[in-house]
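Re: the 299-residue chain
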Amino acid sequence: MSSPAEALATLNRIRQCPDGSLLSPEETAVRLGTPVEVVRAAIEKGRWGWQIQLGLLEYSHRHGIATHESFAIHNIELTNYCNLQCSYCPHHRMARPKGHMSAEILAKCLEHYVRRPGLPRLVIHHFGEPLLHPELEARLTQIAQAGVDIQMSSNGLLLQKKLPILLAIPCRIFITLSVHQWADQGPEAYFKALTDWQAQVAGSNLTITQAFNVSQTQFHFHAWTGGRETEWDYASHCDFLRNNMGSVLWNGDMASCCLDCDGESVFANMTDVTAANASTRPWRGCRGCDIPGHRGYRE
C-alpha cells in the first residue's frame, strides 16, 4: 500500500455491499482471512500492521482490485555469486540457488525500468558482487543501449581487472566502494584505497564514492533483518512498501525487500504477464529490519 489513506480506501471498497452498506469488521475479517481484532483496529483506530496490509494485498490480487502504482524496480541482482565471505553478511548462509542474470531477464527489467524507474540510475547489485558476471561487458552494454545509467556497489577486488570494460561502456557508471575487503584494516586503509581509485578514474565515465556505513574513525555494520524485532509502521516508513518498489533477483523473481537474502519475500517474476501490476508486501523480515532511514542501524 502506498499510504494509510489509500489502504483505507481499498478496505472500504472490499467492505462495500451491493446495497451500499458496509460489511461489519467480523464479516470483513472472514473475507480477508485476517484476525477480526486486526481489522477492527484498522477500521476504528487507523492501525495498519503487517497482517491487515497483507490481507488487503492478497485479496486485491485475487479479485483484480488496484491498490497501488505499478511496480518500480529499485535494484536488480546481476549475480548472487560473491568472492568474499564476510562474517557480518548473510550471503554465506544463502539457501536459494546461485546464478547470473540472462540477457532475456535483463531485457524485461529494462523494459519495465524505463516505464517506471525506482531510482534515477539502475542499481545492479543485491546479494552478490556484480563484477563477477561472466558476461559483464554484454550486460552493461545492454543497459547503456537502453539509455540508462548504472549504479553498483562493489567490494573492489575485481575493479582493476574489470576497469577496461567499465571505461568502455557508453554510459555513466557510479560505483560505491564497499568496505568489505578493508573490514579488518580500518577506515584509514579504506579511505586511502578510495582516494587512489577516485584519482585513477577522474575525468572518465566512472564515479567512485564511499560507502554509507563508514566514517573517518569506524565502520558501521547493520544487522540486515536480524535486528531487534518490533512492530513498526511498515507501510508509512519503508520506501519499498510505500512506493511499491522492489528488487529483481538474477532469475527474474521480484522481492519486496533489499535485505532479503533468501528470496522469502518474492511475490512475482518479471516474466509474468501481470508483473507490472504486482505489489510489494510485508514479510517476516520487516520486524527485524534495521536499515538506515527505516529503523536506524547498530554500530
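Residues 50-63 form the longest helix (14 residues).
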